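Ligand: fe (ii) ion. Inputs:
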Amino acid sequence: MQITLYLKNSKIAMNIIHHYTREELIGPSFWKFSDLGMVQFQNNYDQALLDTIRRKAIALKNSLSSPSCLSSSYIREPHKHIIEINELLEDKERIARLESFVGNSLEVYPLSIARCFIHFMNPNDGSLFWHSDAVPSLEIINLELSDVVGGEMQIYKGSEDEGRMELVKNGKIPEEKLLTVKPRLEYSVFGQFTRTLHRTRPIESGSRIALLIAYRSKEKPYIDDNTVWFLAADNPRMEWLDDFTQDIKSTKIPAYLRDKQLGVI
Ligand SMILES: [Fe+2]
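Predicted complex:
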């Protein structure tokens, strides 16, 4: 059922298709920066801008896309090759809207190699395997949905460990334990998908292209599951390690020690 949400300080009404707290999705969860689980909302983004990004992504696919740990075809750091993506990344109004969902301040993920991605999903390129996210929160913006059969986001309703054990034992997860979210043009899916088992259902026919943008909490930057080994799996030259370490020193550790002292964590 669609509902309309009127945001604080905004006259824009939005259609919301799905809205779940983190507890509703995976049960009790301590390691989080917000109570939001996920939301699917009408984004009202500039469709001409998204179409330009889509066309450039398709043109660059053969030269730039590569397999990752989680899928078979994606462009990493697309903001370095498609300058229009930076218009989205720098749009303060857009981030303010996402902040209203999580109830605290966000920033685009600082580490460039994990800031955004473009995924190509179709019967040849595959889709995203079962995983939980390493980045604290993620927005998924569809650039293309062309006669897609399959390609839905599926989230395991329970703890990641339970879900993974179910996959090990049975090789699949029963439908009743899944939240299935149909991808839509002009709508974003946004949420905290760390320690939340999910995948993109394999695509039987058609094509889906999605732009993924990562964010983190300004107040709790240490709520972040990215690790050196996970980042290195897709980025083995490790030229990003100095930026990663510097961020830990300058931002994560001071915030963590402050909150530890305050008894917040
Ligand atoms: Fe994910």
